[in-house]
Structures are given as structure tokens and as C-alpha cells.
Amino acid sequence: MPAVVSGDNLAVLLLLLAAAGLLGGFLSGLLGIGGGGVLVPVLYEVYGAIGVPEDVRMHVTLGTTLAVIAPTVLRSFAAFRARGTVDIDIVRRMGPWIFVGVTAGILIADHASSVALRWVWVVFGTALAIKMALGRDDWRIANTLPRPPWLEGAAFGIGTISTLMGIGGASFTVPLLTLFGRPILQAVATATGLGPIIAIPGLIGYVISGWGVAGLPPLSLGYVNAGALLIAPLGVLAAPYGVRMAHSIPKRALELAFATFLACVALRFLMTLI
């Protein structure tokens, strides 16, 4: 039976969603991430609290998260581009392959179980936590980007995994670009240009693949739940503040905090699998 959400509990849930929206938008601007790393675990617990069946709960979480972060990454991209820090040539080179990867991710998610999608988060969420904890932006493989087809292959992988995790892809794109000689600020800015190529086609794909599926929460279009989209404007509002701070202060303490958060999320999903 679906859980009954009381007025007090509903108020708490709405406050948590509002906080997640603000934090996701701020992190989008500060670290170049789309906020999905924050929203996925929050929405997963919210949908569990209102009784969404486990077999569709993760799909709804991922589809809704991509819908929420889409305007946020667009806002971050516009803010960084206005400051002249986005490398449009990289966006044009990686963008088409990101899109192909997103398409592959949607096809995989359409046939994947909730268990498989949680395992994706456990594995790659742990990898992201380790990367954030190390916090090394000075590591270099080369000073120029890889020649075809290596960068294009990496873009395809980023699009696929990001769609399966419900994130904007910058958590993978930023370290890739810095490993090949791009300054951290330019890498963060450029990643925001690739985020919409993941979020917008991704949310459309989750709408289509979830259309007519049983057990979805009210106000759902496929696997995208419109009820949670109320937090999207808060993310858009907070994103420019993160961009402003990204240009003025070191991010090491926040990286460590976010690494800890990601590790806890990965552990939480692991506990649901064992």
C-alpha cells in the first residue's frame, strides 16, 4: 500500500526538495555539475516515502532529476559563456557523441531493472567520490586533447553513464579536460555547455520510455514527475551565485564535503542491494 504522507511530513519533504534545488543549482555553477548528484538520492527517498513501487522508483528518480537540472545547466552555461570561459570548439566536437551516448543510455535504462540502475550509481558514484576526495586538477596526460576517435569515444561514454545516473555529465567531463591540459575554470565552464545535451534529450527519452508504465506517481509524464519540477526554478535562481563564487574562491573544502556526500549515497544504494 502507498505510504500516507501527513501534513507535517509533506512540509518537511517540500523543504528538503527546496534545499536540494538551491544546493543543486549552486553546485552546478560552482563545480560545473548539474546538481543530479544531490537530487538523485533526495528524490529516491521522497518517492519511497510516498509509496512509488521499487521497480519504477529509480527510473522516475533519474528521469525527473534530468528534467529538474535541464534549466539549471542551461542557466550555468549562459552565465559562463557571458564571461567568455566556454570553449565552444570542444562543445561542438564532443556534443554529437554525447547525444549518441544519451540515446544509448535511454535504450539501456528502458530495459534495465531498478537493481541494475542502482548498481550503476554504486560503482560510478564511488568513483566520483574518490575523484573528488583526491581533488587533483594538476594531473596531466597531455597538453592537447586526444585525436579522433578517442575524445569522441569518451564523449559517448560520458553521455551513456550520465543518463543512467541522472547527472549532467560534468563530473566526468571536467577531469577529462583537465587531464588534457585545459585550465580548471575553462573545463568547468565548457562542461556546462555539454550538460544540456545530456539533460534535455535525456528527459525526453525518459518521458517516452516510461509512457503508460504502471505505478508512476501522480502528475507523471512517463518517468518524469512534474510534481518535483517545482524545485527547478530554485536551481536556476542559485546557479549564477555558484558561478560567481567559482571565479573567486578555492573549492577544496566543498570538494571534500561533496566527496563524503557521494560516498554516503553510494553506500545507501549499496545497502538496498544486499
TrEMBL record:
The answer to keyword Transmembrane applying to this record is yes
Q: Which InterPro entries does the record associate with it? A: TM_pro_TauE-like
Topology of the protein relative to the lipid bilayer:
Multi-pass membrane protein
Spell out the subcellular localization from the entry: Cell membrane; Membrane
Coarsely, its chief localization is membrane
Q: Which GO terms describe its cellular component?
A: plasma membrane
Keyword list (alphabetical) reads: Cell membrane, Membrane, Transmembrane, Transmembrane helix
**Keyword presence, Cell membrane:** yes
Q: Which residues cross the membrane?
A: 12-44, 56-78, 90-109, 154-180, 187-208, 220-241, 253-271
Q: Which residues form a coiled coil?
A: none
Q: Which family does it belong to?
A: Belongs to the 4-toluene sulfonate uptake permease (TSUP) (TC 2.A.102) family.
> In its UniProt entry, what is this protein called?
Probable membrane transporter protein
Q: What is the organism field in this record? A: Hyphomicrobium denitrificans (strain ATCC 51888 / DSM 1869 / NCIMB 11706 / TK 0415)
